[in-house]
Recover the amino acids of this structure.
């Protein structure tokens, strides 16, 4: 039978209703609600921590390079195993971090459809993620400028050497 009995007045209610039609008592299992909110908290924490990892790598040329290097290295089986055993869990791959961020943002977005508090939280996460993406672009530009600078310096140095050599 598709009914649930009210704890308070004993009346039988349809399974889909959330409170008793006769006395108004809540028919939702407290343990279920608690479990659901624990899971949600875990999701929020995971999402925040993965965005944090992304924020951690985007501001420095070195760590951004390392993270991207992890991708190309872990694509080759032997080196991948070597690197992950020597760096341990500290070395994070760029694509892994991004896929985790997207995974948790998507999950939270789905869950937030009937919670304005959660929607607010998701909006904050997205803002953090957007800022970190801008930061990544800046870091990338910095890296390009650095490379161009090094190449120019090398060319100037060679020209200088050739000039000095021609004086003798
Ligand atoms: Zn009742």
């Amino acid at each position: 039978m598709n009914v649930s009995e009210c704890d308070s007045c004993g009346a039988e209610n349809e399974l889909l209703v959330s409170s008793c039609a006769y006395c108004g008592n809540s028919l939702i299992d407290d343990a279920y609600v608690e479990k659901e909110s624990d899971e949600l908290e875990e999701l929020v924490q995971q999402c925040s921590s993965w965005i944090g990892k992304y924020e951690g790598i985007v501001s420095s040329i070195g760590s951004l390079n390392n993270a991207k290097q992890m991708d190309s290295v872990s694509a080759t089986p032997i080196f991948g195993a070597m690197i992950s055993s020597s760096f341990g869990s500290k070395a994070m791959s760029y694509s892994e971090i991004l896929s985790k961020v997207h995974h948790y943002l998507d999950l939270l977005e789905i869950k937030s459809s009937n919670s304005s508090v959660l929607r607010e939280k998701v909006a904050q996460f997205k803002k953090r993620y957007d800022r970190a993406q801008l930061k990544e672009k800046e870091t990338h530009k910095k890296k390009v400028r650095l490379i161009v600078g090094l190449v120019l310096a090398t060319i100037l140095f060679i020209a200088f050497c050739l000039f000095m050599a021609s004086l003798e």
